[in-house]
Amino acid sequence: MKLDQLDGLLAFVTVAQKRSFTAAAALLQVSPPAVSQAVKALEERLGVRLLQRTTRSVSLTEAGERYLGRVAPAVADLAQAASDLEGYRAQPGGLLRLTLPRIAAPLVQARLGGFIEAYPQISLELRFDDQFVDIVAEGFDAGIRLGESVQNDMVGVPLTREERVVIVASPAYLARHPAPRAIEDLREHACICYRFASGTVYRWELQRDGKPVEIEVNGPLTVNDGNFMAFAAAGGAGLAYTFERFVASALASGELVSVLPEACPVWFGFYLYYASRRQMPPKLRCLIDYWKAEMSVDAESAALSR
Fold this sequence. Notes:
This protein is α+β, with helices and mostly antiparallel strands. It folds into 3 domains: 3-86, Winged helix-like DNA-binding domain superfamily/Winged helix DNA-binding domain (Arc Repressor Mutant, subunit A, Orthogonal Bundle); 91-161 and 269-305, Periplasmic binding protein-like II (D-Maltodextrin-Binding Protein, domain 2, 3-Layer(aba) Sandwich), CATH 3.40.190; 163-267, 3-Layer(aba) Sandwich (D-Maltodextrin-Binding Protein, domain 2). The protein has helices at residues 9-18, 21-28, 32-46, 62-84, 105-118, 135-138, 171-176, 226-234, 244-253, 282-305, and strands at residues 51-53, 58-60, 94-100, 122-128, 142-146, 155-158, 163-169, 193-194, 204-208, 211-215, 222-223, 240-243, 257-259, 266-267, 270-274. It has a 5-stranded mixed sheet, covered by helices on one side. The model is unreliable at 299-306 (pLDDT under 50).
């Protein structure tokens, strides 16, 4: 092996994993022609075609499949070794990519300013996506989801305590429509519906006598943003299904009123999850430690207020 044969390995592995020169270029923060040139140069040095390219797709040749299986773990170790060097800086830095659902936006928003001020050399990139995301395949450092959504092969760090669901409406709406007394009464109400990116409309998950119940609701308004449901309810559009945390101030002020509290379940809280405990990047460790410290402060404040 010649010394320059190591050149282009990262480009090849990224293209092979993403099956796209454009996606690989975005992840590596270079231009697609630069990625293409690096892979082509690697193939020429090896004397073997690794990728089949068409105008619409990228696939591995048989030689490329075998080569990827041997070099991908080594490239991952090299990338991790470079990332570990961040620990020798005065402060950890670099790009930290997170995926999270829109409903978690207020949760993160409350802590963004303090974290950015504490770690000015870390650049945060947040992508909001309500579908579950494969953080390894998509090149994210970590993700945020509700505890029951985190897969077993991921490492989860709790960011909040249990999350209570509430069904809320404005006083004006309830003045026009008597509050529901049973789960079945929801079918007679204007419920604000949530549609997933897949096209499926969410069935409200409730409980009766401690047992889970799902109900299909209907109404004149359907959205794809969980946070907007509470705003719409406050405007009198109907009943909204959301987390108590995000409407606590509106409930306290009387802007919103809770209905059917006995039917509303308590879920696992939000978790930050990542792929492995081994050789965690310092920038991710900073985020986790910062969030844990904030949780401790919140717990102390809550205890003092009681």
